[in-house]
């Protein structure tokens, strides 16, 4: 159930919004000389916040980011990268999610959801039998199982994005070559040519809000770049066609997030050299500007709710420091979102 009052010395670690008005912010607060998880909820775009019951969750060195993902106003997930907790009654109660057919060490990667299905990229198993798979569950239930055939061997990265019933997933970034699948209904999957097929090339996907016709990807790789710099190739697939390269974002940092407010604009968060960068293009990746350059170096949960309104967390993801930043002009400027 909801708790009275807003938390004292609240430090955000993650944010998730179901639309421009309804959002959740997870973090840690100082309560009676102890650090506790705290969860805030707004239904008016952040004008006011209400404290909701938060599950007990700790920071793990294996992942380093305590995250929240809201499928809707009833069904919400929280993960520290090793365990997943779920609510199906708007944070009135929480329970631990059992991930079928997994063995330690478990790493929870990308999470997203549509109107009826939630997805998560999960790496699990001992070193000699480690694999990375896509898991799914009905949004309103806790029945997580691996999606047959959607896996690659070894520890890898991955990205999954969903719009209504359509879903797109890419796995890669480890020793295995990247793979990519799409579904229109959440039941029948097709494998397509991946946006990033080479080994050690970390993929990230993004969709414009409410539009699944064009899927965007960024492929990050170091090659001959100096330390703290990477190539970041922005690509796009339209109506299931092969990905085509649109442009290349600036080299500083390693990619941490991708958002596409419209089919012609893209924002990419990057971390490197002691700074967090937010690069922005308004001409489909042809040219880029630096919309943000912040230190300490961390920009997390980059996401847009519509073509002009978006959020990102400037923080450690662990409760050491953090603020939620918001834009109302498509990412050209960002301001701190008051949590009071």
From TrEMBL:
Supply the InterPro entries for this chain.
WD40/YVTN_repeat-like_dom_sf
Task: Identify the SUPFAM superfamilies for this entry.
Answer: Oligoxyloglucan reducing end-specific cellobiohydrolase (SSF110296)
Name assigned to this protein: Photosynthesis system II assembly factor Ycf48/Hcf136-like domain-containing protein
């Amino acid at each position: 159930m909801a708790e009275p009052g807003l938390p004292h010395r609240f430090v955000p670690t993650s944010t998730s919004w179901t639309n421009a008005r309804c959002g959740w912010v997870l973090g840690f607060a100082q309560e009676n000389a102890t650090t506790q998880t705290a969860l805030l909820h707004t239904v008016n775009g952040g004008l006011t916040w209400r404290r909701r019951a938060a599950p007990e969750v700790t920071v793990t060195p294996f992942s380093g980011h305590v995250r929240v993902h809201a499928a809707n106003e009833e069904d919400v997930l929280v993960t520290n990268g090793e365990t997943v907790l779920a609510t199906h009654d708007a944070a009135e109660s929480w329970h631990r999610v059992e991930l079928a057919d997994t063995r330690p060490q478990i790493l929870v990667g990308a999470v997203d959801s549509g109107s009826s299905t939630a997805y998560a990229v999960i790496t699990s198993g001992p070193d000699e039998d480690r694999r990375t798979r896509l898991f799914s569950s009905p949004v309103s239930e806790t029945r997580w199982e691996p999606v047959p055939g959607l896996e690659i061997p070894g520890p890898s990265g991955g990205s999954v994005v969903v719009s209504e019933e359509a879903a797109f997933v890419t796995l890669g970034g480890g020793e295995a070559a990247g793979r990519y699948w799409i579904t229109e209904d959440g039941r029948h999957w097709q494998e397509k040519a991946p946006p990033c097929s080479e080994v050690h090339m970390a993929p990230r996907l993004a969709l414009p809000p409410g539009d699944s016709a064009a899927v965007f990807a960024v492929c990050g790789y170091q090659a001959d770049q100096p330390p703290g710099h990477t190539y970041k190739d922005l690509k796009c697939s339209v109506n299931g066609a092969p990905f085509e390269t649109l442009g290349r974002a600036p080299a500083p940092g390693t990619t941490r997030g991708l958002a596409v407010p419209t089919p012609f604009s893209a924002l990419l968060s990057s971390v490197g050299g002691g700074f967090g960068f937010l690069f922005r293009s308004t001409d489909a990746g042809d040219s880029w500007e630096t919309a943000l350059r912040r230190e300490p170096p961390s920009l997390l949960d980059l996401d847009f709710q519509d073509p002009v309104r978006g959020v990102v967390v400037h923080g450690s993801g662990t409760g050491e420091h953090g603020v939620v930043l918001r834009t109302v002009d498509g990412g050209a400027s960002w301001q701190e979102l008051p949590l009071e």
